[in-house]
Write a structure and sequence with these properties.
elongated; alpha+beta; six-stranded antiparallel β-sheet
Length: about 110
Amino acid sequence: MRRSDDKRKRNRKLSEGGDAQEAKKRGLSEIFDIPGSAIGGIAHIEMAENREAVVDGCRGVLQYDDNVVKLATGKMAVKFNGRGLQINVLTRDSAVVTGFITSVEFVL
């Protein structure tokens, strides 16, 4: 019985390891005042009013049309709703969305 309890604890620690690493990354980004995306795995979004959004940590485009741009950002996605939306810049790890942005949603 004791061995199975130890095994469960070890498996729980392994499954929680990803969450602990994410927390460490967030902590480091706050301590050093650098974007989490620079550390890896954490998206960083900056907006200029409602006309432009820069997404660092973008891992791909999930949906793209004139009214919706949905980008993968690791464990979640960010969805921009609006009018005349375009992806002006798309690199390996970032995207720039322009247009008239009316809302931003975070989707798991």
